[in-house]
Automatic annotation (TrEMBL):
Keywords: Aminopeptidase, Hydrolase, Protease. It comes from Corythaeola cristata. InterPro entries: ERAP1-like_C_dom, Peptidase_M1_aminopeptidases. GO terms for cellular component: cytoplasm; extracellular space; membrane. GO terms for molecular function: metalloaminopeptidase activity; peptide binding; zinc ion binding. GO terms for biological process: peptide catabolic process; proteolysis. It comes from the Eukaryota. Belongs to the peptidase M1 family. Pfam families: ERAP1_C. This is PSA aminopeptidase. Residues 3-231 form the ERAP1-like C-terminal domain.
Length: 232
């Protein structure tokens, strides 16, 4: 990918190499593939090829997703759990039909208290239902945030809110980021999530930061959070 970004080889060559990793069992390798595909996806979100790269993501990640399944197997290690979360989140965001349906089913059970989601599955399920959700989904997620008694769960929800793609809902999340519901040190995570969530989110987050620059700058002064905000 570095060579492709430098213009030395074609991105097509990168995609061909990625296809060769379908039987790879290692979490670290998949994490790298996921990150690099995320970069390509962001670049292609401004072109006619965006939907095609989502199909490519589904093709590459489906076999490992089917092998891992949704539930832990006996003798699994910590990295297997991390890999499952990574793969299901990637497939869900890309709109993989079976993953989306199962995520919605498990989310409903979680919200209704029938079957609480394990910590490993919450982020991929949340991000999937939000990416393909509506105002009701967002309201449910904000309600979960309000009810959460652990800061870890609040942060988990804050990081994925930006997955939603409708412009009016994006604005609602950005307003939420500066509200008293979110700790000042976590506001950047919410705005960053919006900026990384979609093409619409990127534009909206950039405008929001400019419109609220004085408040944000006064809040963080010259600290590391202001530089992180600019970077995202």
């Amino acid at each position: 990918l570095s060579q492709a970004r430098a213009g030395i080889i074609s991105t097509v060559e990168v995609l061909k190499v990625m296809e060769a990793f379908v039987n790879e069992p290692n979490y670290t390798v998949w994490s790298d593939l996921s990150c690099n595909l995320g970069i390509l996806s962001t670049l292609l979100s401004h072109t006619d090829f965006y939907e095609e790269i989502q199909v490519f993501v589904k093709d590459v990640f489906s076999p490992i997703g089917e092998r891992l399944g949704w539930d832990p197997k006996p003798g699994e290690g910590h990295l297997d759990a991390l890999l499952r979360g990574l793969v299901l989140g990637k497939l869900g965001k890309a709109g993989h039909k079976a993953t989306l349906e199962e995520a919605r089913r498990r989310f409903k059970d979680h919200v209704e208290g029938k079957h609480v989601l394990s910590a490993d599955l919450r982020s991929p399920v949340y991000v999937t239902v939000l990416k393909h959700g509506d105002s009701t989904t967002l309201d449910t997620m904000l309600k979960l945030h309000k009810q959460a008694d652990m800061q870890e769960e609040k942060n988990r929800i804050e990081r994925v809110l930006g997955a939603i793609s409708q412009p009016e809902l994006i604005q609602k999340i950005l307003t939420f980021a500066l509200s008293e519901e979110v700790r000042p040190q976590d506001t950047v995570s919410v705005i960053g999530g919006v900026a990384g969530g979609s093409k619409q989110g990127r534009k909206a987050a950039w405008k929001f930061v400019r419109d609220n620059w004085e408040e944000l700058y006064n809040r963080y002064q010259g600290g590391f959070l202001i530089s992180r905000l600019i970077k995202v």
